[in-house]
Amino acid sequence: MKRRAILVGGAAAAAAAGLWWAMPRGAVTELPALASPARAEDAAAPAVPDMVLGNPDAPVTVVEYASFTCPHCANFHANVWGEFRKNYVDTGKVRFVYREVYFDKFGLWAAMVARCGGEMRYFGIADMIYDTQRDWIGDGTDATIAANLRKIGLKAGMTADQVDACLNDNAMARAMVEAFQKNSAADGVEGTPTFLINGEKHSGEMSYADFAALVDAKLGG
């Protein structure tokens, strides 16, 4: 099945033009151009931690690169993720790392909402975003998507002010894009979903059985 390809250069160019990620808050306000992108060594740059579940000493680490707007990623989370988490992550066999990919500003907005809840609530909000992907994307307009993502944030227990503050955090948006570009380039990620299983790369949709077999091979099972 065809998967979405990452066009890192195109995304970077659009972001640098200040046109990619503007978040409507009443009137739409464009972010400034990225003439001086956030840097890890810059004390003012927000931290963008990996989102991690499972035993830190697990024998297998699975890294998933996925986008909240990718339908193939939504299929993985609908058909594979729940059982995989129960059988491998929650049992201590696998340390799971989720890394966001941004094909478009909407995927970035969704990730900002998920991160707004903090690390403890991140995966619960991520599940809500994937489970309702078609609904919150709706007619595909900026206003509709922004309103629907705010509703998800409110449903997750955040206040309207908290959600708006997160969605309009320009420094965090820049830092998130920088982290995405750095990680995906380092790992040679070209589309989603992409998985690194103890560093071995696998791309595209898989059934639970096929995915579990790959992990079992690393577990020596």
Task: Characterise this structure.
The structure is a single chain. With 221 residues, this protein is of the alpha+beta class. The chain has one domain: Glutaredoxin (3-Layer(aba) Sandwich), CATH 3.40.30.10. It is 48% helix and 16% strand. It is built from nine helices and nine strands. The protein has helices at residues 8-16, 71-89, 105-116, 122-131, 133-137, 142-155, 160-167, 170-186, 208-219; strands spanning 4-5, 23-25, 27-29, 51-53, 60-66, 94-100, 191-192, 194-197, 200-203. It has a five-stranded mixed β-sheet with strand order 4-6-5-8-9, sandwiched between helices. It has a two-stranded antiparallel sheet with strand order 1-7. A two-stranded antiparallel sheet has the order 2-3. Strand 2 (23-25) and strand 3 (27-29) form a beta hairpin.
